[in-house]
Amino acid sequence: MPVALDAHPYDALLLLSFGGPEGPDDVVPFLENVTRGRGIPKERLKEVGQHYFLFGGVSPINDQNRALLEALRKDFAEHGLDLPVYWGNRNWAPYLTDTLREMAADGRRRVLVLATSAYASYSGCRQYRENLAESLATLQAEGLELPRVDKLRHYFNHPGFLQPMIDGVLKSLADLPEDVRAGAYLAFTTHSIPNASADTSGPVEEHGDGGAYVKQHLDTARLIADAVREETGTDHPWQLVYQSRSGAPHIPWLEPDICDHLEALHGAGVPAVVMAPLGFVSDHMEVMYDLDTEAKAKAEELGLPVRRSATVGADPRFAAAIRELVVERAATESGRDVRLCALGDLGPSHDVCPVGCCPARAPKPAAAGADSPYA
Ligand SMILES: CC1=C(CCC(=O)O)c2cc3nc(cc4[nH]c(cc5[nH]c(cc1n2)c(C)c5CCC(=O)O)c(CCC(=O)O)c4C)C(CCC(=O)O)=C3C
Ligand SMILES: [Fe+2]
Question: Which pLDDT does position 1 carry in this prediction?
Fold first, then answer.
């Protein structure tokens, strides 16, 4: 038996994710959940609905979360970490409110939240904290005793998040035809967000102009590119680019888009590209449609050899990283001095989001941060 690990004061981990449709009838109600009050043009919604219908109305995200749950439970059991793992979503069943209600009924008092986004941003961090506050308010109105909720720090620079992606890029390079391999460029992709959200992603006091979102992604990209150079002995030029833009056309979002980038690289005589979606923790619809369908079609049209490298998904090294982060945070909360594991220039991200971190357009209560109205 391994030495038992200690999660005290936590008595549960909550995997908090986006959720996705599981069949054609779910697509429209799912999109209504996602876009409620968010001002996304109707045309864009129709288009995104088509992406889901192309895959039978099924998003890959729920099965990926089921696989991650299994990987986490297996890893915790193998390492003697006695901590039940729950799962709740923002936009589809199992809904966060229902899961938190179940957790309260099970007597969970101190919950640690793992969100399926590795970086700071309104969409990837504060919006999840708003979802937690909204669900807690519902439970409070039902007269339930509320658990205290904390959120795990951003894990973009944790070795267990990086290593599976490094391996993925190496595999994609090896998979390219030999005559173009050495000249291949790496295109790291992430979700585009409005420039205004990027600029205020935080904490801004720490990251300054441009905000945390882009800086964190650049650090992750550089770490992967450095490791790939070390391993192959070849310097593959790289750039951070964006995908999955939505919103109204007159509002500036992060650019360039991956498809424009492929065109530019091709025009400059680059012989091959590996697209590495480091902004996504698993092969979401954005990866399956925007990269594997749309960007690959663009590359085909250009006659440019491309490969798309793997996301971390349910890789056992990622599950192990989460276990390490849980044990680390438990020790910190217990007042013990711990070394926080992180690579790169930015160092470990904050445990508790400060007041005003990644602000919303219209302020709303957010739990699991310094400005939480809950204990
Ligand atoms: C930064 C970021 C992440 C990464 C962090 C994280 O993982 O949370 C992410 C994840 C995801 N986004 C997803 C789906 C959608 N996102 C939308 C809309 C938007 N996303 C935004 C940003 C992000 N989104 C933004 C700024 C908008 C505009 C509207 C708004 O300000 O809210 C829309 C509406 C239609 C459209 O406009 O595309 C859909 C359907 C799915 C599920 C995929 C699946 O089914 O596999 C996942 C994992
Ligand atoms: Fe999104």
Answer: 52
Please check whether residues 205 and 281 belong to one and the same domain: yes
CA distance 349 to 341: 10
Question: In ligand 1, which atom is closest to the CA atom of 213?
Answer: 1
Confirm or reject: Cβ of 44 under 6 Å from ligand 1: yes
| Contact call for residues 222 and 214 (beta carbons, < 8 A) | no
151 and 165 in a common domain = no
59 assigned to a ligand binding site: yes
What ipTM goes with this model?
A: 0.92
Residue nearest to atom 15 of ligand 1 (CA): 34
Asked, for residue 363, whether it belongs to a domain, the answer is no
Q: Strand, helix or coil at 12?
A: strand
DSSP state of 4: P
151 and 169 share a domain?
Answer: no
128 is in an annotated binding site: yes
Cα(331) to centroid(ligand 1), Å? 33
- Upper half-sphere CA count for residue 307 (Cβ side, 13 Å): 20
| Cα distances (Å, whole numbers) of residue 209 to 217, 346, 359 | 15, 15, 15
For residue 131, being part of any structural domain is answered with yes
- pTM of model > 0.80: yes
> In terms of residue numbers, what domain contains 215?
159-308
pLDDT of residue 117: 98
Give the chain's mean pLDDT.
Answer: 96
What digits encode the pLDDT tens for the residues 42-89? 888 889 999 999 999 999 999 999 999 999 999 999 999 999 999 999
Six-digit token string for 165: 């992606």
Query: Is the beta carbon of 190 within 6 A of some atom in ligand 1?
Result: no
Q: Is residue 135 part of a domain?
A: yes
More confident residue, 41 or 112: 112
- Domains: count for the chain: 2
Kindly state whether residues 65 and 125 are assigned to the same domain.
yes
pLDDT in tens, 133-160: 999 999 999 999 999 999 999 999 999 9
C-beta neighbour count of 268 within 10 angstroms: 8
Q: Give the CATH number of the domain where residue 51 resides.
A: 3.40.50.1400
**Is the model's pLDDT at 191 over the cut of 60?**
yes
